[in-house]
Structures are given as C-alpha cells and as structure tokens.
Design brief:
The chain is of the alpha+beta class. Helix content is 20%, strand content 46%. Strands 1, 2, 3, 4, 5, 6, 7, 8, 9, 10, 11, 12 and 13 form a 13-stranded antiparallel β-sheet that branches.
C-alpha cells in the first residue's frame, strides 16, 4: 500500500485498533467454554439420563458461558485466593450439559468462579505449588412442596505448579497434566414425605477445556464500524485514482 493510500484508510485502521484494545483483557468478555470427557461414576436413581442406562464411559459435553463482567468478589485468602460470585442476572456462570442424548441446564439462580494459587501465598511452607480453578452453576428453588437443588461443578487442579494465576479468564487445558473433572447433581425432594422424585449424581473425567471467548456485542459493533470505515476510505481512494488516470 502506498503512503497516500495508507493515509486515506488510516482513520479506519485507527478505529479498528482502538476497538481491538477495548476487546483486550481489561474489557468485559463472554467466554464460551467447552468441557469434554467421559463418565467415570454414576448413580442415576430416577433415570434422569435414561431409565436403566449404564452411564459409565459415556461421552460427556458441557457448554459453559462465563461472563467476566458479572459477579462480585468474595471469599478469603488474600493474595492467593480469588472468588467471583453472583445470583440471578448477576450470575457469572451458566452451563448446559449433554449426556446420553439428554440435555440439562444449570445456573438459573446462582454461580461462581473460584481460583486458588498457593504459589502466591506469603510464607507458604506446605503444598506451595497447589493450584486449582472451579466453576459452579446452581439451581435452587421450592415449588408446590418440592425442593430442588441441581448443580454442576467443573474445574481442574495441579500440585506441580502447572496451573497458576488468579485472573478470572477462561482456561484452555488438556488432561494430562492437570486433573480436570466435572461433578453433576440433580435432586428434587417432596418436603412433606422426604421422598426423592429426581436423583442423579455423575462424576466425569474431563479430557479438555477450550475457550471460544468473544467480545461483548457493543465491542463487536465498534470493531465492525472500524472495519467499515477502513473499507469505505480505501474504495474512495481507488475511485479517485481511476478518475484521474
């Protein structure tokens, strides 16, 4: 590109650059994570994932949406422990799972994102390389005399320093070397008879976690505007060059 051509498109290029900076780590990002693995233990007492089905060994997929603009800090531990939590519209984590052809969703009421890194713990003398991350999405409610508690925990842990850092960003990991896992619980009980009408517990070995993070819609709009400005400026420059040729 010639110098004059670059000058013509520079405003658009600068707009794109500015938008890319807005979409960086400091901006709000919606992370779309995919956890994949296989069931290692299951106790499905009421056939939530298929009556009489043997779930052990079945493929498991969890699609998790993590919005790092939601939630409020909490917890304890200072420099080596970080905890982001929220309820309802302020919940930072929601999840949908697929197991044995059955889809279940979690996170209508609350969720959290938790990080622990003992390498940052001042004066640590025991288990100083331990680190983990955990994401949780929960549904807890009572309707018509029935109490329901459904939740999913997904995460990973390490004791060799492989996993570190407390930033609330979504992970991209493969197992090994990390111990990645998911735990699903579905439970509904009649609060008068104490009979469980829904009951299932599933433990999953997660083989990989992948993040397809995308900027929030407002950031995308600014980026598209910047690209559009660059394109218009370049077309005008070329049209002018043809007219004077």
């Amino acid at each position: 590109m010639k110098i004059r051509e670059f000058a013509a498109v520079a405003p658009g290029v600068m707009a794109v650059a500015a938008c890319l900076m807005l979409a960086g780590p400091a901006s709000a990002t919606v992370h779309n994570l995919t956890y994949k693995g296989a069931v290692v233990e299951a106790l499905d007492q009421t056939g939530e994932f298929g009556a009489g089905a043997n779930l052990v060994g079945k493929t498991f997929t969890a699609n998790v949406v993590y919005d790092d603009a939601k939630g409020v800090p909490g917890g304890w531990g200072g420099a080596y422990y970080d905890y982001l939590m929220g309820d309802g519209a302020n919940n930072p984590v929601t999840a949908t799972i697929l197991l044995n052809g059955v889809t279940k969703s979690f996170g209508a009421t609350s969720g959290y994102d938790e990080r622990l890194d003992r390498t940052l713990q001042p004066g640590c003398t025991l288990d100083c390389t331990d680190a983990n991350f955990q994401q949780n999405a929960t549904d807890r409610y009572t309707v018509g005399g029935f109490y329901t508690l459904n939740y999913i925990n997904l995460g990973g842990m390490s004791s060799d320093g492989t996993l570190s850092g407390l930033a609330h960003t979504a992970p991209n990991y493969t197992n090994p070397p990390l111990a990645l896992y998911a735990f699903v619980n579905l439970f509904t009980q009649d609060i008068f008879t104490l009979e469980a009408t829904h009951s299932a517990e599933v433990v999953v070995r997660i083989d990989s976690v992948r993040d397809g993070a995308v900027p929030e819609p407002g950031v995308w709009a600014l980026m598209l505007l910047g690209f559009g400005s660059a394109g218009v400026a370049l077309r005008r420059r070329r049209a002018g060059a043809l007219a004077t040729a």
